[in-house]
Amino acid sequence: MNDEMTLEPMAVRTLPQKFYAILRLLDLIPHDLIALISRLSIAAVFWQSGQTKVDGWHVTDNAVYLFETEYKLPFVDPWLAAHISAFAEHFFPLLLVIGFASRLSALALLGMTLVIEIFVYPDAWPTHGTWAVCFLVIIAGGPGRISIDHFIARHFSRGI
């Protein structure tokens, strides 16, 4: 008879059994909640970064200057990199917040994170690793039921 089948009261269990039972409670945390927190928190990080690059609808000269002097991405013109970055840091977080094209958005921002890690701030791997985990939760497990993606998938699965 396994632990799940026993009807022993908690008081009769050994200390390791009690500890294991408490740990089993963590299995009850729904992916929907984890995915929502991942989507919202990582979206905020990139949105805030994007906000530092724009003034209204225009990319700032300071953002272009940073791409020329500090970021120095290979193979990409600094003006173009600043504009693409500002767009991506607004567009993909917005999609993550509403839960539309979530896996694609997470993949795009994971790619951006890898570029930042490899070419710009290689010593910031603890931060970038944390970001990557948020993206991988969404990429591997989906955005959860609190998303437009879920409603679209549910709508199209009815006809199958």
From the structure above, extract its key features.
160 residues, transmembrane helix, two-stranded antiparallel ribbon, transmembrane, mainly alpha, single chain, membrane
Structural class call reads mainly alpha
Number of helices: 7
What is the average per-residue confidence, as pLDDT, rounded to a whole number?
Answer: 93
Shape: globular
What is the CA-based Rg, rounded? Answer: 21 Å
Protein name: DoxX family protein
Transmembrane segments: 104-122, 128-148
Membrane topology: Multi-pass membrane protein
GO cellular component, one term: plasma membrane
Q: Any overview of this molecule?
A:
The protein starts with 14 loop residues before the first helix and ends with a helix. β1 (54-55) and β2 form a beta hairpin. It is globular and about 70 Å long. The protein has 160 residues and is mainly α. It has one domain (30-157). The protein contains 7 helices and 2 strands. Belongs to the DoxX family. It is a multi-pass membrane protein. InterPro entries: DoxX, DoxX-like_oxidoreductase.
Summary?
Belongs to the DoxX family. The protein is an all-alpha fold and 160 residues long. The protein has helices at 15-25, 31-51, 61-71, 78-98, 102-120, 125-141, 148-157, and strands at 54-55, 58-59.
List the helices and strands and how they pair.
Elements: H1 15-25, H2 31-51, E1 54-55, E2 58-59, H3 61-71, H4 78-98, H5 102-120, H6 125-141, H7 148-157
Antiparallel strand pairs: 1-2
